[in-house]
Amino acid sequence: MGGKCPSRKVKKRRYSHKTARRSKFLIKGDDAVYEELQKPDGEMKSTLPLDEDLPGMGQYYCLHCDRYFANVTVRDEHFKTKRHRKRVKQMMGPAPHTQLDADLAAGMGAPDNGPKLMSM
Amino acid sequence: MRLEKCWFCSSTVYPGHGIQFVRNDAKIFRFCRSKCHKNFKMKRNPRKVKWTKAYRRLHGKDMTQDSTFEFERKRNRPERYDRNLAENTLKAIKKIDKVRSDRAATHIEKRLKVRKGKERREAQKELEQSIHLVKAPQVLRQDQSLTLPKIKVMVSQPKSEQNQAMEE
Lengths: 120, 168
Known about the structure:
The complex is a heterodimer of chains A (120) and B (168). Chain A is mainly α and 120 residues long. Chain A has a two-stranded antiparallel sheet with strand order 1-2. Chain A has helices spanning 18-24, 30-38, 43-46, 72-80, 82-92, 99-105; strands at 60-62, 67-69. In chain A, a hairpin with a 4-residue loop joins strand 1 (60-62) and strand 2. Chain B starts with a strand and ends with a helix. Chain B has a domain at 1-61: CATH 2.30.170.20. The mean pLDDT of chain B is 85. In chain B, the strands form 2 sheets. Chain B has a two-stranded antiparallel ribbon. In chain B, strands 3-4 form a two-stranded antiparallel sheet. Chain B is 49% helix and 7% strand. Chain B is mainly alpha-helical and 168 residues long. Chain B is built from 6 helices and 4 strands; from the N terminus they run E-E-E-E-H-H-H-H-H-H. Classes of the chains: A mainly alpha (120), B mainly alpha (168). At the A-B interface, helix 2 and helix 6 of A face strand 4 and helix 2 of B.
């Protein structure tokens, strides 16, 4: 990541990290990925929609890293990488931090939604 | 008016303070100050950052289970205004807050006590084992007042004798 800096005068400063920063929030957050993974699978793999804007028509997707690949071989290559395996390990662990966790840590009780109005 | 908690450090975010980030899946992240916001942007995990409440809770630094935690809650229902109730609540808040802070203080005291005892025991052990480093053996032999008066240690603990043999 990180392309050539358009306005470079100093020779040492070659690359701008602007793109890296920009793309940081284009991918899914940890908690979103975790939620996806918690869903019962089966429905995910079979129904990947065709999208011509994505690499490989959006058919070769890594759920853990939220990345699309051009073909099967590249994807399988990705599955072997250290980055992917690290990610899988992270996702196997405890659930990511949420606002509810933050509230509990602050010494708040569980949210009180009152009695259920529609009991049926 | 609702006092929210910071997503990162769990401190209270008062109105007019901090910043709020709404992700494109409509999840709201509130931050009490730019420090927390920056840490979030760096994708740090609050459970691994030592100064957050989440870390302190998880690692037993702070109180985790207490009856005073049941009072402050997010109440997602309207409450009919009642003057007496409001008055009593305001009175209770002060009292509960005091109870809670006292309990938290005792918790920390108790936690630190363990370490103090350990430090003392370690210091005692170090003194017993390496008193010879304080003075040269020749000086110790000449001046009896420099040796520790405890002789019963040698008798009661056969381990210390073995250690001395090893050293020689």
